[in-house]
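PT: before anyone asks, these are the final sequences, not the draft ones from last week. 314 residues across everything. Please model them as a single complex and drop the result in this thread when it's through.
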Amino acid sequence: MTRTSRPVTLSGHPLCTFAPGVAAALDAGKAVVALESTIITHGMPYPANVETARAVEADVRAEGAVPATIAVFEGRIHVGLTDAQMDWLGQASGVLKLSRADLAHAVAAGLPGSTTVAATMIAAHLAGIAVFATGGIGGVHRHAENTFDISADLQELAMTPVTVVCAGAKAILDLPKTFEMLETLGVPVIGYGCDHLPAFWSRDSAIASPIRLDHPRQIADMLRTRQALGLKGGALVCNPVPAENEIAAPDIARLVGQALADAEAAGVSAKAVTPYLLGRMLDLTEGRSLATNIALIRNNARLAARLALELAQR
Ligand code: PSU
Ligand code: MN
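LR: through. Structure below.
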């Protein structure tokens, strides 16, 4: 049933280039997990970014699924990257951070770009990939009532039928407003094995999980039922970071306050806000936030692979 969202041309969208292993897996109806590339270009420093991107792909493979990291090069959306492309992305400067608004521009102009959650969902759907693992989604920024800064990731979840596995929304955001907005947009938000939604670096946001499910099979059943009901759009699975890797919520709250004050003092706005805040958190935690970020995305990749396998079974 998940295959109905696939384009008729098997792994053959005219603007997509598929890595050979990804094309073969899609044509055979095997489990594939999409992965984003903004985390490589704007989310982590080199060389941890490239090492993590490779580790995440290996985690997906170890579970028995095929990873497909997505980015834009030379006028095409690449679904599955070569080693050379991954290395280049990890060190290049000036790579565009692409969302729904600018994906087509980068492709048309032949500019290199990394894909955010929103753009990766669009590309995954074009490619016929139903499951996507990331670290944390974008959301409603604090003081959005003044700045109107709300990530396009939320709108994309409402529109595009891809299930995103994350560790919650980043704690630099206004989490209650972010989850209110997802509810308004009709996006199912699943706490995986947790009564409270996770908050990226920490396991507990104190916000109740709208839906709690404890096994990938239950998530797959819910997704199939949703499709049978004709409900459009994506879903969000929130998977808490492993306990041994979490940074306690009070520590995070203090440091986020500092990072936000620094962003305001530096006059950072628009697309630069999320990368700036993540960079400040890295400094303020003296690298601990990076270790946590790596642990949580690998944890999400494993769960996404298990979900993709469940979905591929029928
Ligand atoms: N999570 C991370 N690092 C990141 C991001 C998320 O740990 O770099 C990226 C994702 O690509 C997400 C984007 O889609 O930040 C959100 O940016 P914005 O708030 O500008 O929409
Ligand atoms: Mn924004």
